Amino acid sequence: MQLDYEKLNFKCGIEIHQQLDTHKLFCNCPSLIRDDKPDIIVKRRLRASAGESGEVDAAALHEVKKEKQFIYQAYSDTTCLVELDEEPPHDVNKEALEITLQVALMLNAKVVDKICFMRKTVVDGSNTAGFQRTALIAADGFIETSKGKVRIDTICLEEEAAKIVKRSEKEDTYNLSRLGIPLVEIATAPDIKDPEHCMETAKKLGMILRSTNRVKRGLGTIRQDVNLSINGKSRVEIKGFQDLRNMPKIIENEVKRHLKLLEKGQELKKEVRKANKDLSTSFMRPMPGSARMYPETDIRMIRPDASKIKIPELISDKSEKLEKDFNLNKDLASLITKSGKTEFFIKLAEKYKNIKPLFIADILVNSGKEIKRRYSKEIDINVHIEEILDYLDKGKISKEAVFEILVEKAQGKKPDYSKYFLMDDKEIKEILREIIAKNKGAPLNALMGQAMARLRGKADGKKIVELLKKEIL
Which pLDDT score, from 0 to 100, does residue 340 have? Predict the structure, then answer.
């Protein structure tokens, strides 16, 4: 069934939550997420407090009714009394605030005059205090997309929740190593036109965040929540998108679910739902409201100064420059910038004039993946590449040898560079004549295969082809 999202009065906005690569928001503990055995165990029960309106939030009441006990795992060397809610929060992490202000300016938003942290009631056990600290940093921004401007309603700075370890009917276990990591939260207006537009918007916001080069990378470091409604009915929030490529289909399936309920005359409930692996959604809890917010009295008000904040260059702009300045194709330039290796690549390309930038870029972004795929070994290419490129730039080894040497390093070996030194033309010709003599009448391709196998890493591929053709003729 083809859906007409305009006729359905489709309304959609997105919230992005991105971990920052700094120490924690309200203490000096490192933002190091751990899975090893904890040396501290604390047990708690939580209750819901009334918000500023005097009411208790519906989502909080839903959690309280479960009557669960919470077990918290902590570490004496990387967590402290702030995470355990046994000590008041320290001053706000200045670096995290600076990054959030950068993001706000990149999103064309207006920074607030005063930053006042609020407490957001959360009693599902994910925060030892029973609330999450969050502050509005900026509002009224926008980004440009292929389908028009998408307004940015708010940019907030808040603390990450604890990591769930295990759930049961009566107990939930959390690890506190994640609790308190700074999060930037970006919330758009309902300007998104359709599911594909939602994915485009999420990708652009992610690119802007990565452009600061001060955000965490990897699975779980960025989360997207989608809010949507049709025909003016109740709004639903979808959480837990693991892969942006699945976002359009999950949204489409959720809209179809709404249509089926409406066809049956059933009411659409205002609720939070989870994105499932089969691209459907399932109920999580009632939609929270304004009743869960109340002022944080333990943190001083901040008057931000955005006048000295430097706005970083966008990854998309860097990518275009790499294409132009170093003659890279679009995909490779994009991979370099997304990997955060732009400056390192430029340094190498300018240092090694005898090596094509295209080759350097390919080695930087693809060789590590290939080594992991073929040999199940990890290697930090940046640590080893200059030593190897020195030999290549001086003409001592071939391009083919670069990968072979990296494999040896990944395997923990100390490469013997002399075995990779290039042969001179005389030595190459001797081996080629030997191959031809043993394979009389064989076609060029067959001879070439044997020559490449025999001379891999010992001679440049183009030179082998050139000399073999001459020997045959």
Answer: 86
Q: How far apart are the first and last CA of the chain?
A: 64
Given a cut of 80, is residue 40 above it in pLDDT?
yes
Q: How far is CA 467 from the centre of its chain?
A: 48
The DSSP 8-state label assigned to residue 243 in this structure reads -
87 and 151 in a common domain: yes
Q: By the 8 A CB rule, do 82 and 176 touch?
A: no
How many folded domains does the chain comprise? 3
For residue 7, name the pLDDT band (cuts at 50, 70, 90).
very high
Supply 227's token pair.
Answer: 């809010």
Collect all residues with Cβ–Cβ distance below 8 Å to 131 and sequence separation of at least 6. 49, 119, 120, 121, 122
Distance CA 73, CA 37 (A): 8
260 lies in a domain?
yes
pLDDT of 140 above 80: yes
Round to whole Å and give the CA distance between 113 and 302. 9
CA nearest 176: which of 83, 87, 86? 83
CB 469 within 8 A of CB 444: yes
Report CA 150 to chain centroid distance, whole Å. 21
